[in-house]
Amino acid sequence: MVYLKAVEAYGFKSFAERTTVEFDQGLTAIVGPNGSGKSNITDAIRWVLGEQSAKSLRGARMEDIIFSGTEKRQPLNYAEVTLKLDNSSGLIEADSKLNITRRLYRSGESEYFINQAKSRLKDITELFLDTGLGKESFSMISQGKVDEILNAKPEERRHLIEEAAGVLKYKKRKKETAAKLDETMLNLSRVNDIIFDLESRIEPLQMEAAIAEEYQALTQEMREADIQVTVTDIKTLKTDYVRLETEIGEFTEMIGLKQARADKLETAIKEMTHNRASLLTSQEELHQQRLMLSTSLERHQGRLSVLYEKQDNLTQTVTRQQKEMEKLATELEEVTAEAAELQQQEESLKIELKEIRTQERAYEKKLSELNRDVETLIETARDNYYQMLSEQTAAKNELKYIDKELEGLNHYFSSVSDEDKEAYERLSGERSHKLQVIGELEQQLISKRSAFKESLEQSRRQRERYSELDEQIRHAGRYIDKLKSKQQSLTAMQAEYQGFYQGVRLVLKEKLTGIHGAVAELVTIDRSYQTALDIALGGQLQSIITDDEKSARQAIQFLKERKGGRATFLPLTTIRPKKMSDAIRQKLQQHDGYIGILSDLITVENQYNAIISSLSGLVIIAEDISAANVLAKKVDYKYRIVTLDGNIVNPGGSMTGGSVNQPSILLKQKEELTNITDQLKQYGVQLKGLEDEFDGLKNKLTDSEFKTRTLQDEGETLAEEVQRMKSEYDAQNVKLFELKTHYEQHAERVAQQAELTDIKKQLDEIILLKQSELQKIENEINDYQRLKTDARSIEEEVTRSLNEVRGHRIVLEERQKHQHDKVETNLRRKAQVTQAMSDLESDDHSENLEETIQTLKLTIQEEQESLEAVIQQFDKDKTAGDELAVDLEAKQTDYNELLRQVSGLEQGIGDMKGQYSRIDVQLENLIYHLMEDYHMTFEAADELYEAPAHIEELRQRVKLTRRSIEELGPVNIGAIQQYKEVKSKYDFLSEQESDLISAKETLETIMNEMDDEVTTRFNQTFSQVQQNFASVFRELFGGGSGELKLNSDDSLTAGIDIMVEPPGKKRQHLTLLSGGERALTAVALLFAILKVRTAPFVILDEVEAALDEANVLRFGSYVRSLSTETQFIVITHRKGTMEAADRLYGVTMQNSGITQMVSVDLNELNHNDMEELTE
């Protein structure tokens, strides 16, 4: 038999010194006045056995049990109590000597020891399990225990029998098993949720993985083919690159050769031009000599005729000569005066000519700076101008030939019309107009090209936005399709009630009469509270709300018939609400961590308020576990408190917590479906906006592209028109040049006719006419020069000024010469008159006349010979000049052709350089493509891949492969690995699901077995206690009867009622007895239980305090009778009890606040001493 040998306390409550209380077998009484600390011994034993409630130990907090000091003693830092047990019988699975120690420090740290070996509270609890010892066992019975029995409800009183039956360990194990079952069910629910989620993901992932694998294969195929095509293209471009370099070099060399030839021709042309000018100068000099010789010859021939006439009429004219002499004298005076006047005019003309020559030199300096081409035109005009002046001068000296020349000219004019002149003037006007039109067209072309570029850029920007919108629409469409698919899936899941228990699902799908739906379907709660709701209600979320009990019974019958499992039903007519009192609400609201009452956080239709209140009206929601602990303390641990993250503080103070993955799939599905519906509306609006913008942009893009094409076509048309106009302009220039040449020849003939027609009377008009012709030539030069640079206008001005100066100079020189000739003529006439007068006076006048005639004949003969020589030389020079002109024209043509060829070659080089640049860009792009897309250099790719035999087939394959890749749409490469991971997880969780189902079945079996064992043990123990209670009641009351009854047929939950019949009274309920009777009845029940469940030792703490003296004596006697089998330690202040004790301990407090123990020898103790001990 196990018995308590001693209790050793130090620092526990009022035990300031280490105190040892030794106990013997039998009955030991501990007595002492109130406040001496005798009950501290009971508290010390209860504390060692595992009591965790400071309140049960009569303190506010656990640190209050440590000695707090007195006026004379310092407080201690820890409390320590040791129970010393004799375990010789082996009732406890431990050593024969068993010491249990518990130590508590002020820091809050607690230690447990079994035989000085550090242990856990759990080890101590399990050590005493089913031994009758423990903090809640019948080994320690206090006055509070008696009151508890008296005030307990039948269901609470059942606990006494269960403890006596030793089923607490089964109930504890069942509770643990139930917790495991709940955890298993929770895990199974979570596994089912995850499996359900994985099932919805596996098929799409499998499809995405297949697409991704196909994408990878196509990408690899396209990669190899594209690299081969790219390498081949690079090689081809490099070959073209080298070819173009060679061709550019050849063209450059040809340009050099042709340019050299052109330079030589240019030099030859300059030299021939100079030679021709020299020939023209020589011709002019010969022409002047011819004129002079002709004039002299005519004059001499006229004189000869005169001499002949004189000779014939000498006689007849003597008289006349005399008269003539007088006349000649008069004329001589006039001629002399006129000569003097002419001399003065000549001096004036010389001065004017000097100034004109100064101007001429200035203009010649400007003229030398003009362009070579302009100089040629000016030189031609100058030659024409000199030719006209020469013809004008010749006309004055050839008056005798005017008729003949006019006849020839008339003959020429009869065969020539004015069409050439009109054609020339018309072409000249058309050319100027065409040049203006070309300028306008080129401005339009520039404007069109600028507008084309702007339109092209606008189209590019619109096309980019078009592509962006198209991609956004596609993405939005795919996302909406995905949402719709998920919506359909969730809707289907809801329709199939996936996630619900089998029985719930079957009832909901059947749509039975009176079924409103599951709680999870009908409630709505903010997302932040979903986890709390899920944890708080758990399986109750699947409870089905019905109209009434009848509907619930019909549904239950339906499940039985279908063998469809089980379900919980909540009839609207029977479920009553549970509400938290306003006082508790106000107390809770004072704490910041308080969220609210769960039923207040749930939104539901009014008709379901009672049910929701019943399920969650007493559930408190806290922010976190710390807040939950504080709130639980405020409500005395009477209510269930759930935190937002799913931790629980249960009624009574136990806590449940850990990690929570996600809220129940039932709540998650409903919220997700709502979110998806909202998203579909939102994305539908966005998609409509994108599609509207897309359609508008599509129309704008069509307009822009049409405008771009129109501008491009108009630009090309304008370019072609400009090119055509330029071609026509060049053709007109050629034609104009031909007409100009012909027209110049015609103009010369017209000038000759005009000069010959009015050589005497209209000489000034002829000069003005020539000036008009020169002005026309200058206008032609101006027209030509306007096509070139602005500098040519200076050339025209210089040419015009120079021609005017030269024309003025020639006019002055001609006037000077004419005056000089006139003076000479007058002098000659004067000489002739003088000679005639001398001849008339001379005696040998006829002989001198004959001699003069002979001399004149010789002179005429010499002049005729000189004239013929001059004419021959003139004809020879003219022939040479014509030949030189023909040769010059041929060389000029060759020169122009060379320049055209050089220009063509340069244009060819420009085109090739353009190709060269394009190839360079293409090469750079292809090489960048290899590096950027495939991370390969050209050399590496060329070495790795062979040249394909059929490049076009390979190129087509790349296009087809790329199209196949594009047709795949968006590809999730990660889907391959995701599918493997999800599939592996799905297989693993499927196995886990099977294991959890097996575990669930095993746990349910264990719980059923435990229920059977508890029922059996409880019934057996209750029967024994019932018999013992009847017998003990009679002994303690000295008669009468007592009975224990179960208040229901369910042995697992039935409460216990006490019916007694004290001696001399009728049978009545416990509550109708007097205070003493009630106390004695409770003691009788405790003793009845102790007889069934014998404890190694029992501590009775003033349990007989409410009994009268007679009953105390019976109580003491009965305890003593039991002490032969059980060790009793009684805390008392009643004499009847002390008299029954084997050993007595007195408790005193001589020093305030410190308990001291005194052992009393009962053999020496008299009645008066006992009186003193109790006072």
Task: Give an overview in words.
Belongs to the SMC family. Keywords: ATP-binding, Coiled coil, Cytoplasm, DNA-binding, Nucleotide-binding. The chain is an alpha+beta fold. It has 27 helices and 25 strands. Among the domains are: 1-137 and 1133-1174, Rossmann fold (3-Layer(aba) Sandwich), CATH 3.40.50; 499-672, Taq DNA Polymerase, Chain T, domain 4. It has a six-stranded antiparallel sheet. A six-stranded mixed sheet has the order 8-22-23-3-24-25.
Question: Which properties best describe this structure?
Answer:
Taq DNA Polymerase, Chain T, domain 4, 1175 residues, Rossmann fold, 6-stranded mixed sheet, alpha+beta, rod-shaped
